[in-house]
Amino acid sequence: MRPTAMLAAVVALALTGTATAAGLKIVTTTSDLAAIAKAVAGDRAEVHSICTGKEDPHMLQAKPSCILLARNADLWIRIGLELEIGWEPPILDGSRNPRIREGARGHLDAAESALILDVPTSRVTRALGDVHPQGNPHYWLDPLNGRRIAGAMGERLAEIAPADAALFRANATAFQQAVDERMFGAELLKALPADRLWAMTEDGSITAFLADPANQGRAAGWLATMQPLRGQQILTYHRSWVYFAHRFGLVIAAEIEPKPGVPPSGAHLRQIAESARQQGVRVILQEPFYSRKAADRLAVETGARVVAVANSVGGQPEASDYLALMDLIVKRTAEK
Ligand SMILES: [Zn+2]
């Protein structure tokens, strides 16, 4: 290459900036989003998460190090639905990075691609506790949402770095197929397309399908492990397990928090102990970062088992990526 041509090539490279994806910087608000982003971006990006997965994501404090991370980010990915309302604005404002401002191409709100539950039908007031007015933000525990988020990330990365669009889309598809396989097992996926199977878990018709002698033993994965628990009532500490419960057909009898973000009173605990006994509740699900005191007391009073399990990647050592997190939650919930 002649020196002038070489110079032109260097200039062209500099001008395209992030279009050469090798050095993309992705910052996610939570570790679950980071895990999925790593799967989709592969070696074309450096991915950092603000949350580690060990803390309560509602309560994070924005530190100067978070602002520094955001300053150089090409893509910011958040959960949205006000999960990060207490700490995302100071980080984005402090970063002075116009590429990741809300509404910019470098700002991806993962909620836009997810199926959302608990959308309030009446006006939300502070009297209801820490209720999120656009719906429940804990949607990443529905593996169907993990799948949908990966698709949205693949598309946004393809827009930001078109040179690698095919790679991002292929990575997203591979992640989605891995989720399908962990959810249903290879055998069931040979019988029916994944979309059909997900729809059957949504409308509940999967139960009749699996009960058909012709389909006996065909399911594997999370579906097969959780199927015996379908219809069971459970207790949870925070209203953060609704998506997991919804996908696997568990019924949440009550939350230990009387309102989201409000610790339980003795009277509230007595009331839910009574109803939990009546409903035959066997499992109490909660994140490791909440106090176990109330759950342990309820366990003694009702005979239910406390399952303190990470609900984010990194929350416990075994939850090393998104699939491993779901593996862990399914295993811990279903074990006797
Ligand atoms: Zn919450």
List keywords for this structure.
alpha/beta; 14 helices; binds zinc ion; 336 residues; 10% strand; 4-stranded parallel β-sheet; Rossmann fold; 2 domains; single chain
Describe this structure in words.
- The structure is a single chain.
- This protein is α/β, with parallel strands linked by helices.
- The protein folds into two domains: 16-177, Nitrogenase molybdenum iron protein domain (Rossmann fold, 3-Layer(aba) Sandwich), CATH 3.40.50; 220-334, Nitrogenase molybdenum iron protein domain (Rossmann fold).
- 45% of the residues lie in helices and 10% in strands.
- The protein contains 14 helices and eight strands.
- It has helices at 3-16, 31-41, 64-71, 88-95, 143-160, 165-184, 186-191, 194-203, 206-211, 221-226, 242-248, 266-279, 293-302, 322-334, and strands spanning 24-28, 45-49, 75-78, 107-109, 233-236, 251-255, 283-286, 305-308.
- The strands form two sheets. It has a four-stranded parallel β-sheet with strand order 2-1-3-4, covered by helices on one side. Strands 6-5-7-8 form a four-stranded parallel β-sheet, sandwiched between helices.
- α11 links the parallel β5 (233-236) and β6 (251-255).
- α5 packs antiparallel against α6.
- It is globular and about 55 Å long.
- The chain binds zinc ion.
